Amino acid sequence: xxxxxxLSTFLAFLCTILCSKAFYELLIKWRSxxxxxxxxxxxxxxxxxxxxxxxxxxxxxxxxxxxxVNIDKFHAKxxxxxxxxxxxxxxxxxxxHHKENINIAxxxxxxxxxxFLEKLHHQYKLNEKEYEDMRSYVLIHPRTxxxxxxxxxxxxxxxxxxxxxxxxxxxI
Amino acid sequence: MLLILLIILNALFYxxxxxxxxxxxxxxxxxxxxxxGSLFSLNLGVLLGFQHSVWLxxxxxxxxxxxxxxxxxxxxxxxxxxxxxIYGLYSTEVLWMIAGGYILFSVSFAGMFYYFHTQNxxxxxxxxxxxxQSKNLHVLRxxxxxxxxxxxxxxxxxxxxxxxxxxxxxxxxxxxxxLQDEENPQQFTGxxxxxxxxxxxGHEIWENVVSQKLTLRDFIKLQREAEINDQELNQKVRxxxxxxxxxxxxxxxxxxxxxxxxxxxxxxxxxxxxxxIKDSFSMKQFAIIPLLTRGRVIGLMVIDNIVDQxxxxxxxxxxxxxxxxxxxxxxxxxxxxERSESMAIEDALTGLKNxxxxxxxxxxxxESAESNKTSLTALVLDIDNFKNFNxxxxxxxxxEVLIQMGDILSSAVQDEGIVCRFGGEEFVILLPxxxxxxxxxxxxxxxxxxxxxxxxxxxSQPFGRITASIGVANYPESTSQSDQLxxxxxxxxxxxxxxxxxxxxxxxxLQKEV
Lengths: 172, 514
What we know:
The structure holds 2 protein chains of 2 kinds.
Chain A lengths: L1 H37 L15 E2 L8 H4 L6 E8 L5 E11 L2 E9 L6 H8 L5 H13 L1 H15 L16
Helix pairs in contact in A: 1-4
Chain B lengths: L1 H19 L5 H23 L4 H34 L5 H56 L5 H13 L8 E7 L6 E8 L4 H13 L4 H6 L1 H7 L1 H8 L2 E3 L5 H9 L3 E3 L8 H9 L5 E8 L2 E9 L9 H32 L9 H18 L3 E8 L2 H8 L1 H19 L4 E6 L2 E7 L3 H17 L15 E8 L9 H14 L5 E3 H7 L1
Parallel strand pairs in B: 10-11
Antiparallel strand pairs in B: 1-2, 1-6, 2-3, 4-5, 5-6, 7-9, 7-10, 8-9
Helix pairs in contact in B: 1-2, 2-3, 3-4, 4-5, 4-12, 5-12, 14-15, 15-16
């Protein structure tokens, strides 16, 4: 019996360290989905802004290790601080090339702006905690991760010449 | 069996509480974690017997160290040892040994958590700092590239304001530019703006922008859409003028010290001009940034966060200043370019368009008339006996007559056509889409206005007045070759001169006579 007690304590210790992040994600998922159902909104209908994405590489990028890599080599992973009390810092978009991980862009949760949620927060329909949790949930959602990867991929390959094409001088 | 079930239930309860704690704020989360961990150990102690409380206490200390670091383990150790002592679970010697073990465990765990915590915080601050710097560099690069793309003032203003307001840029909710008046350096007039007039409008516009997934370059390209979105604000800003003098302490500080300021409620008392800005644009907190180029303030930029109400910090001003200076330089260059452009096509004496402009413009009008099958009327005007006037009164008074002549022609034609000084005392008026009869009507109006105008020195002219002869020709009525239009109108002027001056002759009349 003592062995079972020791084992359960050891498991509790391990779960605290290793599973807190998963528990946090589980709770914000449950909570946010419940709130979205109440608001008659689906995650697919929520629009967010890529505006605050911070790039660690210049855009467009000519580095073959980045610009020639296929989109499926790009990953977006949430970045957490602390094991036991996890705090979502944001979403890191990186590329895996020749077993090397290159960080390309980072979307900080503090700067991640969702007009729909901001409006509800402003109208006091969401409290601070709900607003933060829902923002975090939207950011780590697989659909959001995919769209961030697509946006980064697009930016890396964008054509800058369009900015240098001015309209002709208007004489009339 | 029941005992096993209870042990498992105890563990499940602990795990459940570990999920539930995230439902609450960070502080409450810590308390729930500490209490559920302590309850887990206490329950195990009850189930397994308190002889196991030494190692169970270690788990309590771990939970307290994770939640409250040094303070947690200190209070926790003392409390557990006190309970052991009160219930007499261990002898004094053993209790001392347990105390030693607990101290060692507590120091290790609390130290470890403290170390991770401080390192995490430090790393987080550094990361944030570098992320911000990286973003600023990125914005500067993007904006400098965009600013180089044009020399048009309105487009430049749009690029500059977009860089300040878009999230891809510096992310302020609203910004507008006031440019210094050329004649009155103390006066600043609103020129361009981007942003909403109210919080609700801000949310609405922003939701649209976000749903369209626009980037900084999309924003830059969408100048017209931005103007439509922010039409009300632009109208308000363009009708807004600031006259800054020594009485307006803070605004004057921006001009003289060339430093930006943040305006809060308490700064409003010292400058009523700021109160006026605040009231006019429903602002809570805002900043005024000087647009500096070559050490001179050419304008002011006002920024605020009307939608998200984020406080503007001094650090934000440090970030915006390099961009503002770059924008100011580009604006000044565009203004100089526009001025030199207009100087190149304007007659310095009369302010009318000159022959260079006519030479560049005429082919465009010609082409437009031919392709759209519309008419184009040309009037060539020559002042009668002007050499005589100059010889009698000198060129200074002659120039005065030319200036007044320019005013008469401009007021007669207004927006219906283009008036150019062709050279000397000769003027050309082009009336796009006007038929010959309309051209004749305009020419006759001009002739009569000149005839009736009181010019200084006109008494020395024949019949005591200054008059003009005007030749009129129209495409396609007078000629089927539009490039001949000016030539035939000129021929008509000569005919008017031959017939005794002070008259309007249409080219048709010459043809009929032939």
